[in-house]
């Protein structure tokens, strides 16, 4: 029996499972999925979990069930490429014939002193729960600093505002304007929402140090009661420890078939893969579609195509609380209630397609 091992139950490997199960998996192939939790977590919704506007159950989807699918829960210690084996923290060894690495990312602190010790995170469901508990326990008029004004920071700030009207929220943005790489109309809409809802956007910021109850922005010190870090990501440690060629943010270089160049039976999907686009759930799913096609061709002994289709993303959707949103789709900007309904619809469809 040929062994396909999937590392991580994120968006990429969920799409792999969706395309192979229940009826497209060859009879001589079995799958082992390794993840720290017994369910798929919808990372794009962790901001709402941390803010307290969605429950834990709202951001979970069960893994599929199949007689040739085995779920292993635990922490991965090391990926042995030469041994074709995954080493678990509990001492378990899991061998593979084909491997898909989809372990995602963790926060990157850019060597800012104290950032890893004194900030909260929304990178995993477990850390998002801890962030929720910390924010829920703050007294009235407490100050929350959110470092990083990308999509995660924006959505967390807006959702937290709707959850806790009594909090003072400061969103620190390194750029001169919100979402500076996108049309100014989009930036203006988001900034106006923050202005109307008393979220303080601190532009051109540079957080140089974090201490308990204190943020250093350039030469200024800002008292805070809690800080959430959303200012950059990097692949998880087991992937970084592979010592493979990587891009400027540590993502592993892959070939056109999403394989490691020196290991044709090892694929990298999602936040760990070096691609010209920014990491996203949509990108991971598009990669997974191609990985499944390559796997099927290799299992049949077929020659791979000389080139793979170019991955084209549709854009992105963002929320500003439960009633407003923003989107950038096919070079067009959509704002307001329609954009929020679009995001809710996409989320509903995702849950429906994944059971």
From TrEMBL:
Domain of life: Bacteria
Assigned keywords, A-Z: FAD, Flavoprotein, Oxidoreductase
Pfam families in the record: Pyr_redox_2
Gene Ontology molecular functions: oxidoreductase activity
Domain FAD/NAD(P)-binding: 3-285
EC annotation from Swiss-Prot or TrEMBL: 1.6.5.-
Broad class of enzyme this protein falls into: oxidoreductase
InterPro entries xrefs: FAD/NAD-bd_sf, FAD/NAD-binding_dom, NADH-Q_oxidoreductase
Reported cofactor(s): FAD
Family from the record: Belongs to the NADH dehydrogenase family.
Name by which UniProt lists this protein: NAD(P)/FAD-dependent oxidoreductase
